[in-house]
Please model this.
Amino acid sequence: MSDPASTPAPISDRERAELRRHGILLTSLEELYTWGNSNSVWPLNFGLACCAIEMIAASMAKFDIARFGSEVFRPSPRQADLLIVSGTVTKKMAPQVVRLWNQMPEPKYCIAMGACAISGGPFKQGYNVLKGIDRYIPVDIYIPGCPPRPEALLHGLVQLQKKIKGFKLTGPAAPRHLRADAPGECPVPAFGEQDLEPPANPAVWRAPAIDRSEKT
Model:
């Protein structure tokens, strides 16, 4: 049994920075994995409505999404690992969005861009609009707005990178693709007589419990 007093103290960030200044880099397999993963997120070349125009603008020279390693918008879901749901998700399109998600390889991530993708937006009361894509697929980052500007999408991408860098390769904090209990695919909803069947994926979304009891 080792003596706790003889265990070396972990290196502080200041000491790491000093070593880096001398050309010495200290890292771990976990840090190397999450660093490479977070700086090579390739979005799917896919858009739904007006928010897609802002997504396209984010790739232009004025905003330059290439600074974050995400300039490669892939035309095939099998070559992409980021699904940006940009725009209104109608119930007619919802099965197609889930199919695209299922065809993307792991690790993969989802950004819900705009009020429509998050909750239905101004069309929430419409019979044909899905009240949030998170009812069927797991969403990592929500970007509010109608529509959010390209700067908001870049901020959401930075937050996604921070989330990826915080992943642990083992344990309960491991990302979805490294957990055996997490489903690899989401069920594709079908068109029922009145609505989509099922109305939501219980593995990723449950209706919030509302306490309707009178409070004195």
About this structure: The beta strands are 82-86, 109-113, 141-143, 190-191, 196-197. DSSP finds six helices and five strands in the chain. The chain has a mean pLDDT of 88.
